[in-house]
Amino acid sequence: MSQTAPTRPRPDTASDKQQPAKTTAPKRPPVVRAINAMGGVMTKARLGVPRFTPDSIRRSAEKISGYSDYGSNSYAPGLAILCHALEHEADLNQMGRIVLHRQLSNALAGRLTVVAWEKAFPKQAEAPISAPLFVIGLPRTGTTILYETLAADPALRAPLTWECRDFALAHAAAADPEGDPRVKKLGRQMEQIDRLMPGFTAIHKFGPFIPTECIGLMLLDMASEQFGSLAWLPSYRDFLLNNDFTSVYEWHKRGLRYLQATQPNKTWMLKSPLHTGYLDALLKTYPDARLIQTHRDPMRVIASVANLYRVSRGGWSDAEYDLPERAKSDAAYYAEFVRRATQFRKDHPEHADRFIDIAFERFMSDPMKVIEDIHTHFERPLTEEAHKAMADYLTNRPRDKYGRHVYSRDQFGFTDALREELFADYLATNSAYI
Fold this sequence. Notes:
By secondary structure, the protein is an alpha/beta fold. About 50% of the residues lie in helices and about 5% in strands.
């Protein structure tokens, strides 16, 4: 099926402009500066400051949800380590403590909500999840634009931001989410993100009705990259790398079933770079899953990720830090994901047909041809309705619609030698797509 290519997103822009190695806090709105200043005084006096302890998060989650049954204790190790990292490693300002404490409490409240629903609707809680599609690969490799484009197909169903921010709301507002005042309130809150993280929208636009990553689903078991993108949490990152994710995917599936109850007759479209590092657990949980792995020059990837994290973490911390040191740690973290994926695919040729590889540059130059190739590979029908919906989405969602993402690999100390050190096997195996 041929058609004139729609307006295409423009790649991120790499700049040669040098930046200081140490970061400083961005300029914040007066009210935020006042809250953070008061928070500093309160912290020293140990008065009224949100503390990250498992007990405090559980109390808050139970108050939010009205439930107290967690289904099991599988969440407990992740919660303990995450609380420790947020309390002792993240260097959060007062606004950061308030916002992230609330986000973590809401995430655990989501687990309580899912368990309560499973008790009330046991048959729906065992409903099958059939042949889900997953977009995997390093972040900033086109995963988001490809995922959102595929999710525009009316036959597919992606979890939306408003559903995963508040699992109780996912059912309560399902009849008319666009008209629900609670969802509208969330949208207004999300519109303020650039005031707290200047430049974030140009890097990664999000809103209540945009398909979201699986980070909220995985956070049901307290193992997700959501908080790692918002704060510096090295011990929690170590925990993620040493977790086999068996129970994480169990809860991922339970969360999908909960969301699926509101739209039971569609195929799931899912995405997270985190999946790239845990393919064994993913395919054990979803043995009929189909995986779309995106590829791009890792040097462009890790520089783009580093700049995203510089902005997103800067929203919640005023601490100065060594920018190249942290950026290299983030790069090594994601390099481990593709190392694992590369090894898994070598070790399991029987799963070869479950994968299709997509080059970032090819998708950017001819997105609808790539979409057609994906449907052909997985023997999915591509209807005229779906084709038009996806082409229209691309036309209305160019990459630079909300501003250009400008960054430089030099500002993070990235070199060609580091590229080879971290990604040698990945580069050798996937040279046709990079």
